[in-house]
Design goal:
Keywords: Hydrolase. Strand 4 (about 75) and strand 5 form a beta hairpin. The protein has helices spanning about 10-15, 35-45, 60-65, 100-120, 150-160, 180-195, 200-205, 215-220, 250-265, and strands spanning about 1-5, 15-20, 50, 75, 80-85, 90-95, 125, 135-140, 165-170, 170-175, 205-210, 225, 245. It has 9 helices and 13 strands. The structure holds magnesium ion.
Protein backbone atom coordinates (compact mmCIF):
# COMPACT_ATOMS: atom_id res chain seq x y z
CA UNK A 1 0.00 0.00 0.00
CA UNK A 2 1.64 3.20 -1.22
CA UNK A 3 0.81 6.58 0.31
CA UNK A 4 -1.84 8.48 -1.64
CA UNK A 5 0.74 11.20 -2.37
CA UNK A 6 2.34 8.73 -4.82
CA UNK A 7 -0.82 8.55 -6.95
CA UNK A 8 0.27 10.11 -10.24
CA UNK A 9 -1.43 13.30 -11.37
CA UNK A 10 -1.90 11.87 -14.87
CA UNK A 11 -3.67 8.81 -13.49
CA UNK A 12 -5.80 10.97 -11.22
CA UNK A 13 -6.77 13.19 -14.15
CA UNK A 14 -8.00 10.15 -16.08
CA UNK A 15 -10.50 9.21 -13.34
CA UNK A 16 -14.13 9.43 -14.46
CA UNK A 17 -15.85 7.49 -11.69
CA UNK A 18 -15.40 7.20 -7.93
CA UNK A 19 -16.74 3.99 -6.42
CA UNK A 20 -16.71 3.83 -2.65
CA UNK A 21 -17.65 1.70 0.29
CA UNK A 22 -19.72 3.60 2.88
CA UNK A 23 -19.15 2.30 6.44
CA UNK A 24 -15.88 3.54 7.90
CA UNK A 25 -14.82 4.74 4.45
CA UNK A 26 -17.25 7.64 3.91
CA UNK A 27 -18.66 7.54 7.44
CA UNK A 28 -16.59 8.08 10.56
CA UNK A 29 -17.38 6.12 13.70
CA UNK A 30 -20.90 5.55 12.50
CA UNK A 31 -21.79 9.03 11.33
CA UNK A 32 -21.74 10.83 8.02
CA UNK A 33 -19.66 13.98 8.53
CA UNK A 34 -20.25 17.19 6.63
CA UNK A 35 -16.78 17.04 5.08
CA UNK A 36 -17.25 13.52 3.74
CA UNK A 37 -20.68 14.34 2.37
CA UNK A 38 -19.27 17.52 0.81
CA UNK A 39 -16.56 15.43 -0.83
CA UNK A 40 -19.23 13.25 -2.45
CA UNK A 41 -21.10 16.33 -3.59
CA UNK A 42 -18.02 18.07 -5.00
CA UNK A 43 -17.06 14.99 -7.00
CA UNK A 44 -20.59 14.69 -8.33
CA UNK A 45 -20.78 18.40 -9.23
CA UNK A 46 -17.43 18.15 -11.03
CA UNK A 47 -19.11 15.65 -13.35
CA UNK A 48 -17.56 12.47 -11.97
CA UNK A 49 -19.74 9.43 -11.52
CA UNK A 50 -20.14 8.78 -7.80
CA UNK A 51 -21.27 5.30 -6.85
CA UNK A 52 -21.39 3.92 -3.29
CA UNK A 53 -20.78 0.16 -3.19
CA UNK A 54 -21.93 -1.03 0.19
CA UNK A 55 -23.11 -3.92 2.31
CA UNK A 56 -26.00 -1.78 3.55
CA UNK A 57 -29.61 -2.78 2.91
CA UNK A 58 -32.00 -2.10 0.06
CA UNK A 59 -34.05 0.22 2.28
CA UNK A 60 -31.06 2.47 2.84
CA UNK A 61 -30.01 2.24 -0.80
CA UNK A 62 -33.39 3.49 -1.97
CA UNK A 63 -32.78 6.60 0.12
CA UNK A 64 -29.15 6.97 -0.97
CA UNK A 65 -29.91 6.60 -4.69
CA UNK A 66 -32.74 9.10 -4.39
CA UNK A 67 -31.30 11.76 -2.08
CA UNK A 68 -27.52 11.64 -1.99
CA UNK A 69 -25.36 13.32 -4.65
CA UNK A 70 -24.68 9.97 -6.36
CA UNK A 71 -25.31 8.42 -9.77
CA UNK A 72 -26.24 4.94 -8.54
CA UNK A 73 -25.62 2.62 -5.61
CA UNK A 74 -24.65 -1.05 -5.29
CA UNK A 75 -26.07 -2.56 -2.11
CA UNK A 76 -26.10 -5.66 0.07
CA UNK A 77 -22.60 -6.55 -1.14
CA UNK A 78 -23.62 -6.78 -4.78
CA UNK A 79 -27.14 -8.21 -4.58
CA UNK A 80 -28.44 -5.27 -6.61
CA UNK A 81 -27.91 -1.80 -7.93
CA UNK A 82 -30.40 1.07 -7.74
CA UNK A 83 -30.25 4.13 -9.95
CA UNK A 84 -32.62 7.04 -9.66
CA UNK A 85 -33.34 8.89 -12.89
CA UNK A 86 -33.96 12.46 -11.75
CA UNK A 87 -35.35 13.59 -15.09
CA UNK A 88 -37.80 10.71 -15.48
CA UNK A 89 -38.41 10.51 -11.72
CA UNK A 90 -37.96 6.77 -11.86
CA UNK A 91 -36.03 4.35 -9.63
CA UNK A 92 -34.31 1.67 -11.71
CA UNK A 93 -33.62 -1.51 -9.77
CA UNK A 94 -31.52 -4.43 -10.97
CA UNK A 95 -31.25 -7.55 -8.79
CA UNK A 96 -28.85 -10.47 -9.16
CA UNK A 97 -31.56 -12.97 -8.19
CA UNK A 98 -35.23 -13.10 -9.09
CA UNK A 99 -37.86 -12.37 -6.46
CA UNK A 100 -38.68 -16.11 -6.26
CA UNK A 101 -35.02 -17.02 -5.72
CA UNK A 102 -34.72 -14.37 -3.02
CA UNK A 103 -37.73 -15.78 -1.18
CA UNK A 104 -36.25 -19.31 -1.35
CA UNK A 105 -32.87 -18.04 -0.16
CA UNK A 106 -34.49 -16.16 2.74
CA UNK A 107 -35.83 -19.42 4.17
CA UNK A 108 -32.30 -20.86 4.11
CA UNK A 109 -30.85 -17.70 5.67
CA UNK A 110 -33.43 -17.90 8.46
CA UNK A 111 -31.93 -21.26 9.49
CA UNK A 112 -28.43 -19.77 9.52
CA UNK A 113 -29.67 -16.85 11.61
CA UNK A 114 -31.02 -19.26 14.25
CA UNK A 115 -27.78 -21.20 14.34
CA UNK A 116 -25.52 -18.12 14.61
CA UNK A 117 -27.58 -16.42 17.31
CA UNK A 118 -27.89 -19.71 19.20
CA UNK A 119 -24.23 -20.72 19.07
CA UNK A 120 -22.14 -17.52 19.00
CA UNK A 121 -22.86 -15.55 22.20
CA UNK A 122 -22.72 -11.77 21.94
CA UNK A 123 -23.92 -11.61 18.34
CA UNK A 124 -27.18 -10.00 17.27
CA UNK A 125 -29.19 -9.60 14.15
CA UNK A 126 -28.08 -6.32 12.54
CA UNK A 127 -30.57 -3.58 13.36
CA UNK A 128 -30.98 -2.85 9.62
CA UNK A 129 -31.94 -6.46 8.79
CA UNK A 130 -35.61 -5.64 8.20
CA UNK A 131 -34.67 -3.47 5.22
CA UNK A 132 -32.62 -6.17 3.48
CA UNK A 133 -33.86 -8.10 0.45
CA UNK A 134 -31.06 -10.59 -0.20
CA UNK A 135 -28.66 -11.10 2.67
CA UNK A 136 -28.40 -11.80 6.36
CA UNK A 137 -26.36 -9.34 8.43
CA UNK A 138 -24.99 -10.38 11.81
CA UNK A 139 -23.80 -7.57 14.04
CA UNK A 140 -20.47 -8.08 15.78
CA UNK A 141 -19.44 -4.46 16.30
CA UNK A 142 -22.15 -1.91 15.48
CA UNK A 143 -24.76 -2.07 18.27
CA UNK A 144 -23.17 -4.86 20.30
CA UNK A 145 -19.84 -4.74 22.16
CA UNK A 146 -17.11 -5.67 19.67
CA UNK A 147 -16.51 -9.41 19.49
CA UNK A 148 -13.02 -10.88 19.17
CA UNK A 149 -11.89 -12.09 15.77
CA UNK A 150 -12.21 -15.73 16.74
CA UNK A 151 -15.96 -15.18 17.16
CA UNK A 152 -16.18 -13.39 13.82
CA UNK A 153 -14.54 -16.47 12.28
CA UNK A 154 -17.15 -18.69 13.95
CA UNK A 155 -19.97 -16.64 12.40
CA UNK A 156 -18.34 -16.94 8.99
CA UNK A 157 -17.96 -20.70 9.48
CA UNK A 158 -21.71 -21.16 10.11
CA UNK A 159 -22.51 -19.42 6.82
CA UNK A 160 -19.92 -21.40 4.91
CA UNK A 161 -21.01 -24.77 6.31
CA UNK A 162 -24.49 -24.00 4.97
CA UNK A 163 -23.06 -23.28 1.53
CA UNK A 164 -23.52 -19.53 1.78
CA UNK A 165 -20.97 -16.82 1.03
CA UNK A 166 -19.90 -14.67 3.95
CA UNK A 167 -17.99 -11.41 3.97
CA UNK A 168 -16.75 -9.42 6.95
CA UNK A 169 -17.26 -5.67 6.95
CA UNK A 170 -16.09 -3.36 9.71
CA UNK A 171 -19.34 -3.93 11.63
CA UNK A 172 -21.25 -6.94 10.28
CA UNK A 173 -20.77 -10.39 8.86
CA UNK A 174 -22.96 -10.44 5.77
CA UNK A 175 -23.92 -13.75 4.21
CA UNK A 176 -25.93 -14.71 1.15
CA UNK A 177 -26.66 -17.44 -1.36
CA UNK A 178 -25.53 -16.58 -4.87
CA UNK A 179 -22.36 -16.18 -6.86
CA UNK A 180 -22.01 -12.41 -6.62
CA UNK A 181 -20.10 -9.80 -4.67
CA UNK A 182 -19.45 -6.06 -4.70
CA UNK A 183 -17.21 -6.43 -7.75
CA UNK A 184 -19.51 -8.43 -10.01
CA UNK A 185 -22.43 -6.04 -9.53
CA UNK A 186 -20.19 -2.97 -9.86
CA UNK A 187 -18.95 -4.31 -13.21
CA UNK A 188 -22.54 -4.97 -14.35
CA UNK A 189 -23.58 -1.46 -13.38
CA UNK A 190 -20.59 0.24 -15.03
CA UNK A 191 -21.07 -1.68 -18.28
CA UNK A 192 -24.87 -1.76 -18.56
CA UNK A 193 -25.75 1.72 -17.32
CA UNK A 194 -22.68 3.84 -17.92
CA UNK A 195 -21.13 2.05 -20.91
CA UNK A 196 -17.77 1.60 -19.13
CA UNK A 197 -16.23 -1.74 -20.10
CA UNK A 198 -13.71 -3.42 -17.85
CA UNK A 199 -10.60 -2.35 -19.80
CA UNK A 200 -11.74 1.28 -19.58
CA UNK A 201 -12.75 0.91 -15.92
CA UNK A 202 -9.26 -0.18 -14.93
CA UNK A 203 -7.88 3.24 -15.92
CA UNK A 204 -10.85 5.49 -15.21
CA UNK A 205 -12.39 4.18 -12.00
CA UNK A 206 -11.00 4.60 -8.51
CA UNK A 207 -12.37 2.53 -5.62
CA UNK A 208 -12.12 3.39 -1.92
CA UNK A 209 -12.75 0.97 0.91
CA UNK A 210 -11.61 -0.19 4.32
CA UNK A 211 -12.37 -3.82 5.11
CA UNK A 212 -12.47 -7.46 3.93
CA UNK A 213 -15.81 -7.17 2.11
CA UNK A 214 -14.01 -4.67 -0.14
CA UNK A 215 -11.32 -7.18 -1.06
CA UNK A 216 -12.78 -8.24 -4.45
CA UNK A 217 -12.69 -4.54 -5.38
CA UNK A 218 -9.13 -4.01 -4.09
CA UNK A 219 -8.03 -7.07 -6.05
CA UNK A 220 -9.61 -6.00 -9.34
CA UNK A 221 -9.25 -2.22 -9.54
CA UNK A 222 -5.66 -1.10 -10.18
CA UNK A 223 -6.66 2.32 -8.82
CA UNK A 224 -7.81 1.16 -5.39
CA UNK A 225 -7.44 3.20 -2.24
CA UNK A 226 -7.76 2.17 1.39
CA UNK A 227 -8.59 4.75 4.01
CA UNK A 228 -6.05 4.66 6.84
CA UNK A 229 -8.16 2.42 9.08
CA UNK A 230 -7.74 -0.39 6.55
CA UNK A 231 -4.55 -1.10 8.55
CA UNK A 232 -6.72 -2.71 11.23
CA UNK A 233 -7.86 -5.33 8.71
CA UNK A 234 -4.65 -5.66 6.69
CA UNK A 235 -3.88 -9.08 8.18
CA UNK A 236 -7.26 -10.35 6.90
CA UNK A 237 -6.61 -9.09 3.37
CA UNK A 238 -4.75 -11.13 0.77
CA UNK A 239 -5.39 -8.35 -1.76
CA UNK A 240 -4.65 -4.97 -0.29
CA UNK A 241 -5.48 -1.61 -1.86
CA UNK A 242 -2.78 -0.06 -4.06
CA UNK A 243 -2.81 3.21 -2.11
CA UNK A 244 -3.62 4.30 1.42
CA UNK A 245 -4.74 7.70 2.71
CA UNK A 246 -3.29 9.52 5.73
CA UNK A 247 -6.75 10.28 7.11
CA UNK A 248 -9.05 7.77 8.72
CA UNK A 249 -12.55 6.99 7.43
CA UNK A 250 -14.39 10.07 6.11
CA UNK A 251 -11.27 12.24 6.33
CA UNK A 252 -9.42 9.75 4.19
CA UNK A 253 -12.25 9.78 1.67
CA UNK A 254 -12.20 13.61 1.56
CA UNK A 255 -8.43 13.44 1.01
CA UNK A 256 -8.96 11.16 -2.00
CA UNK A 257 -11.68 13.44 -3.40
CA UNK A 258 -9.39 16.48 -3.09
CA UNK A 259 -6.63 14.67 -4.93
CA UNK A 260 -8.97 13.69 -7.78
CA UNK A 261 -10.43 17.20 -8.05
CA UNK A 262 -7.03 18.96 -7.78
CA UNK A 263 -5.70 16.89 -10.68
CA UNK A 264 -8.49 18.20 -12.92
CA UNK A 265 -7.61 21.85 -12.38
MG1 LIG B 1 -16.50 -0.44 5.29
Amino acid sequence: MKPLSQFSRAEARAIRAVLTDIDDTVTTEGTLTASAYAALEQLHRAGLLVIPVTGRPAGWCDHIARMWPVDAVVGENGAFYFRYDRQQKKMHQHFWASREERIRNRARLDLIEKEVLGTVPGTALASDQDYRVADLAIDFCEDVPALPESEVDRIVAVFERAGAQAKVSSIHVNGWFGDYNKLSMAKTLLADVFGIDWETAKKSVVFAGDSPNDEPMFAAFPLSVGVANVHAFAHRLTNKPAYITDGHSGEGFAELARMVLDARE
